[in-house]
Amino acid sequence: MLPPPSPEALAHSARLERVIAQAIEEAGGFLAFERYMELALYAPGLGYYAAGTRKFGADGDFVTAPEISPLFAQAIAVQVAEVFQHTQPQIVEFGAGSGALARDLLAALAARGVAVARYAIVEVSPDLRARQQQALAGLPVQWLDTPPSAFDGVMIANEVLDVMPVRLFVKRDGRVAERGVTRAGGALAFVERAADDVLRQAVDAIETTVGALPDGYGSEIGFVAQAWLRSAAEWLRHGLLLVIDYGFPRREYYHPQRLMGTIMCHYRHHAHADPLWLPGLNDITAHVDFSAAADAAQEAGLTLLGYTSQAHFLINCGVLQMLAAQRTPAHVAQAQRLLLEAEMGELFKVLAVGRGLPEPLIGFVRGDRRHTL
Ligand SMILES: C[S@@+](CC[C@H](N)C(=O)[O-])C[C@H]1O[C@@H](n2cnc3c(N)ncnc32)[C@H](O)[C@@H]1O
């Protein structure tokens, strides 16, 4: 049972639903799920990330690694420090959430004696940007309206790709259909239509790798995330892009037994699988297809520098030694959540792509799984 929303929250969701209903009407009764997800998460003033509820932490909807423990940022600092030996000492963080990673990464780099000439945040949500500015007041952080061009340094995106809108497909009688959103009986409902060429060809390409998908098989494709990686390749003239998120290589993502895709919603620490439930009140996410992400980055000219689990990455960066040096019951519990296979350690992956860096990067010296992509 999901906790009941307050009357104000219900009114907020109803306002967003009216915006979505209008978009459905303008689209002739079929709104592609990608557009629905964009509105549900980012409609100005109403979408989940664009409006003012508290999302992160114990009294929000979900907890991310930087919120769990400063050990996460301390380990990333080791990777950043290594890359800074070859680049300008600059960081751009995408989608900084509550600002916890920025705060702890700056502290960890300062503790290692590593100077940072510039820490910039690119955040699409005006509400979160305002909260970050409050949380990080007094720290040398700047906010950019648009990503930098010709950037030299380290770019980081932690749990950002999973909130980029996806298109949904389903196999029907050997053909590919697209799932979209309509209104039926006054409520939001899923609807299907024949896929266009772009979606059909993308599903064909998946089936070339994983084999024919069974009838009724549904999943999603992150075209927006792929486009974002191609853009990142343009922004990054020299240095590293670290993408940290939950997901799999293509063969695992589109495994024939994963019949329903990976869409997952988060509401007050409850996970559920209905993205049409009260839009605007919950996070909607899809796992990352890391093969597609790596392909997009490489096609745009970046080098694939590493791919491994979060546990391997953090351990390679010395998180266990850091834990030994500040061993409290709280830190042990935090480290377990970051590292254990049944927690974030295995489901979360770290992808490193970049330009002009020597290999191997410290975070990938053991357990590199590039060959699985
Ligand atoms: C799940 S939260 C993760 C926040 C934070 N990185 C963390 O780990 O706690 C996703 C964040 O990405 C932001 N976001 C989504 N798409 C983005 C984009 N294209 N560029 C920058 N930020 C984006 C959201 O507004 C939000 O701050």
Give the topology, please.
Elements: H1 7-26, E1 31-32, H2 33-42, H3 65-68, H4 70-84, E2 90-94, H5 100-111, E3 118-122, H6 126-135, E4 141-144, E5 151-158, E6 167-172, E7 175-184, E8 187-194, H7 197-210, E9 218-221, H8 223-235, E10 236-248, H9 250-253, E11 264-267, E12 270-272, E13 283-285, E14 288-289, H10 290-299, E15 303-309, H11 310-316, H12 319-325, H13 329-339, E16 348-355
Bound molecules: S-adenosylmethionine.
Would you kindly provide a brief summary of this structure?
The protein is of the alpha/beta class and 373 residues long.
What does the model show?
The protein is α/β, with parallel strands linked by helices and 373 residues long. It has one domain (1-373): 3-Layer(aba) Sandwich (Rossmann fold). Helix content is 37%, strand content 25%. The chain is built from 13 helices and 16 strands. It has helices spanning 7-26, 33-42, 65-68, 70-84, 100-111, 126-135, 197-210, 223-235, 250-253, 290-299, 310-316, 319-325, 329-339, and strands at residues 31-32, 90-94, 118-122, 141-144, 151-158, 167-172, 175-184, 187-194, 218-221, 236-248, 264-267, 270-272, 283-285, 288-289, 303-309, 348-355. Strands 2, 3, 4, 5, 10, 14, 15 and 16 form an eight-stranded mixed β-sheet that branches. Strands 1, 6, 7, 8 and 9 form a five-stranded antiparallel β-sheet that branches. The radius of gyration is 21 Å and the shape is globular. The mean pLDDT is 96. The site of S-adenosylmethionine (SAM) has 21 residues, from helix 3.
